[in-house]
Design a protein that fits this description.
Layout: E1 10-11, H1 15-27, E2 33-36, H2 53-59, E3 63-66, H3 69-75, H4 79-92, E4 95-100, H5 104-108, H6 112-121, H7 124-127, E5 135-138, H8 152-167, H9 171-176, E6 178-181, H10 190-194, E7 201-202, H11 211-224
Parallel strand pairs: 1-2, 2-3, 3-4, 4-5, 5-6, 6-7
Helix pairs in contact: 6-8
Length: 225
Amino acid sequence: MAPHDGIDVLVAPPFTAIALVARILDEAGSRVAVAAQNMCAAASGAFTGEVSGAMIRDAGAIWVIVGHSERRQLYGETDATVAEKTRVAMTTGPRPIVCVGETLAERERGEALAVVERQLSAVVMELDRQPGFGAVAYEPVWAIGTGKVAHPEDAEQVHAHLRATLGRTSAALAKHTRLLYGGSVKADNAAEILARPNIDGALVGGASLDPTAFGAIALAASRAR
């Protein structure tokens, strides 16, 4: 079984490497797709230094990550900012992977479900423009790069809540939107995480820098389908 049988595999290199990575994958006949790590909230205009969705598409990326926790925490991106990026991506591409997730303080206060519902609700009407075109990634902020992982049952609880939130907008949106888990996903825990019914895939961080580990995660995803 090839590691990518029956699943979609994406890599998200820095902006400066997107075109090169896309060309190498294309020349190799690979089914691995390319994503960008961020994009401008405006489709066009005078925004020196920003990278628009059109630029990303021209470079060869067909997906883009929006609302990553580091963008929210370090660059002050709000739910409104993420919603605008999602709107642009849903109308012009590339396809958005919208990140949601709570901090450790929010989880300890029992606010995890409320936080992710608020973040998802900000973009749900945009995602409903074309159910399944976008994806949602739950990344508990306290589990990113720390080695800590949400217990599979806790991750499933959040994913089920996200699915229900999507379902309140439309049944098609809940059915066709892929929900990914991101938070110290590794080769040795991927299978247990991906076995949960509402976890459709993984947003892999540090482990993606190790080809062997990344391949093992992809294989676990393939077997979980």
